[in-house]
Amino acid sequence: MKKKTFVLVIIALVAHSFSSMAQRVDRTNFKAGIHAGVPFGDISDFSNFELGLDLGYHWGVSELIDAGISTGFMNAFINNDTLDFGPLEVQGDFPNIQYVPVAGAFRLYPTYDFKLGADIGYAVGINDGNSGGFYVRPMVGANISSTTEINISYVKVSDDYDFSMAALGILFLF
To answer: Most C-beta atoms within 10 A of its C-beta, which of 39, 42, 130, 173?
Structure first.
């Protein structure tokens, strides 16, 4: 009798888990927003401001987890037309440093209004001489309404130089 009750309880719990997961999995979110960043590392020698566009699509995996894809555009503005490479000073018209990230996205929701996550993939270099590189962007976010999120993130592109920045962004969910 105990074994039969135990099996029925397990079946009921599994059925409940699948039904709540199905409700979450059916929910998808398109996200679009902007962010502003402060570069540091090697890139801070050339730029002191970055603006970007964030786009993503997430699927609910469970009540606590979303997974999806993300992309966007990042533009680090070059300070001036003279760059100093130690003993070598180069003058000219230098392009802004630009990337288009293509990444997988993962979000963990400890509460409805708070999230932790990361985007991991490849950042495609857009400007001349920019080969792109491995892209990682861990982030912490909070809902400020049911359709608006504010987040803080660290962006790292492993290229021939260190493209790193801290960013503050706002996303709108559709």
So the answer is: 39
pLDDT at 131 over 60: yes
Q: Count CA within 13 A, CB hemisphere, residue 130.
A: 23
Does the structure show a pLDDT above 60 at 12?
no
Instruction: Please tell me the distance from the alpha carbon of residue 53 to that of residue 48, in angstroms, as a whole number.
Output: 18
CA distance linking residue 14 with residue 18, whole number of Å? 6
Sign of CA dihedral 138, 62, 57, 28: negative
User: What is the rounded CA–CA span in Å between residue 128 and residue 72?
Assistant: 19
pTM metric for this prediction: 0.77
13 pLDDT above the threshold of 60: no
The whole-angstrom separation of Cα 165 and Cα 146 is: 28
pLDDT at 69: 97
Per DSSP, the residues of 2-29 read HHHHHHHHHHHHHHHHHHHHHHHHT-EE
Strand-strand pairing, 114-125 and 97-111: antiparallel
CB atoms within 10 A of CB 46: 19
Is the domain defined by 28-173 classed in CATH 3.90.1150.10? Answer: no
